[in-house]
Write a structure and sequence with these properties.
The protein is of the alpha+beta class. It is built from one helix and three strands; from the N terminus they run βββα.
């Protein structure tokens, strides 16, 4: 799981590590949604746990 904080509200994504040559990059598997409060964060983390 990865949170992004660049936008107005952070988002939660499920990512995987992918090797490209000598570098390892992250590829987004699923975008789970926007985190506006602590309740959203917990709800999205529970969803991510079910997906993994």
């Amino acid at each position: 799981m990865k949170t992004s904080k660049k936008a107005k509200y952070p988002t939660l994504q499920v990512v995987e590590g992918v090797r490209e040559g000598k570098k390892v990059k992250q590829r987004t598997i699923a975008h789970l949604g926007v985190i506006k409060n602590q309740q959203d964060l917990q709800r999205l983390k529970n969803l991510a746990d079910k997906l993994i």
